[in-house]
Amino acid sequence: MKINNLLNMYDFHDSVIKNIIYISNKKEITFEINLCNWRQLNYKDNDLEIIKLKLVFTGIEAFKTAPEYFKFDNEEILDVSCKFDEKNNNYFVKFVVYGKDDVILIKFYAKESVISLEQIE
To answer: 115 is in which domain, residue-wise?
Structure first.
């Protein structure tokens, strides 16, 4: 799935990032997320309110966080955005998350616009 399509289909606000795994030699970032299913357009009253998901971005370049070092511990997603750069044929992706004491930015470029979104146990 293309990154812009993913962000149009899913509302990540208030969802919680449980873990991030960056594998630089594979150019891959995996986010383990507790998605607020109740915020999704297709949510029905008998659906689970929270769904655990694995979100994989591939073709990663220039992965950065600000602050650079922090202990990851159930950060709440405030915003996720992306912008396509036609010149370089990639997406700039930015997560804005709230940690225990501060706002954290997670930024990267994704050359390949394929995302795997799968439910995890």
So the answer is: 3-119
Q: Does residue 103 contact residue 94 with C-beta atoms inside 8 Å?
A: no
How many Cβ atoms sit within 10 Å of the Cβ of residue 46? 5
Q: What's the pLDDT tens digit per position in 32-61?
A: 999 999 999 999 999 999 988 889 898 998
Residue whose token pair is 């370049």: 61
Percent of the chain residues topping a pLDDT of 90: 55
**Tokens found for residue 109:** 């470029």
**Whether the Cβ atoms of residue 21 and residue 10 lie closer than 8 Å to each other:** no
Q: Does the predicted TM-score (pTM) go above 0.85?
A: yes
Structural domain count of the chain: 1
Q: In what order do the strands lie in the sheet with 75-85?
A: 60-66, 103-110, 90-98, 75-85, 16-23, 28-36, 50-58, 115-119
Residue with tokens 């996720």: 80
pLDDT in the model for residue 6: 86
